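Journal club prep — side note

Before the paper discussion, L.F. wants everyone to see what a predicted structure for a comparable chain looks like in token form. Sequence:
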Amino acid sequence: MSGFKPFGKRLTATLATLATLCGLATLVSPTPALAKKASVGGLYNVSLAGFTIGRASLALVLQGNAYSAKVGLEPAGIGTLFSTGKGSATASGWLVGDKVVPSKYQMASRAADIDFYVALTQGSGHIRSFDVAPQFRPNKERIEVTNKHRRNAMDPLSAALMPVSVGKSGLSEQACKRTLPIFDGWTRFDIKLSFKEIKDVSGHGYNGPVVVCSARWTPVAGHRPSKDSVKQLTQAKMETWLAPAGREDVLIPYRISVETETGELVLEASKLNIEGASSDRAEN
């Protein structure tokens, strides 16, 4: 289980990265019908190579075109044998037309006796200021993150809010046609989604069709190109399965998978709760 150590050292940061890969936060279409308050909650199992290593939680509140979201992660199953780390991340901002315009993001966690912290302020689709700890040690190989890299970028949790154009079904290949520019406080990277298929699933809080998106991680800045972890993640097979939450233009993640050197890392919904919208397909 030596491959579990990197996961434990940046427990919440890993969750945030997975969120951008596959949409751990709820995906919402900014239509007039969402003017009323709505909330979505979810619990997720986290497994590595078939073994449970963690539990994740999701809470999202929509009030008009404003949003606030929170995710949490803590060890579970055999994960408790390798790490005492846990943490959470929060984000807030606005849905403007078919765009997500973040305002604030904060992540805090403790793992392997190290505290991790990120605070971002954002506006007009750019990172305005940031505070992170710990900072990377100086390394000549590391690609420097410049102001250019923080323009047209957003935090990991807000990036997982994916508006679907009005008049188009969220449960279609259109949901996967996007590239997400992410800055997590340390690194800048892109996640490119592409449509794979629509399939039926059952259990874990939802019975019905899901749209499956393939994902590709592309490093932009803040990374060291020669690192094995960077090379592996660039080539890794990734997917997200998106399920409707009682209406066509609101999607939530059902399953996330990322190929790693020690096996498949999977986040899968174990319980979904929808309030403030039709939820005849959601099960408590």
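L.F.'s comment for the group: The first helix runs from residue 4 to 9. Keep this in mind when we get to the figures.
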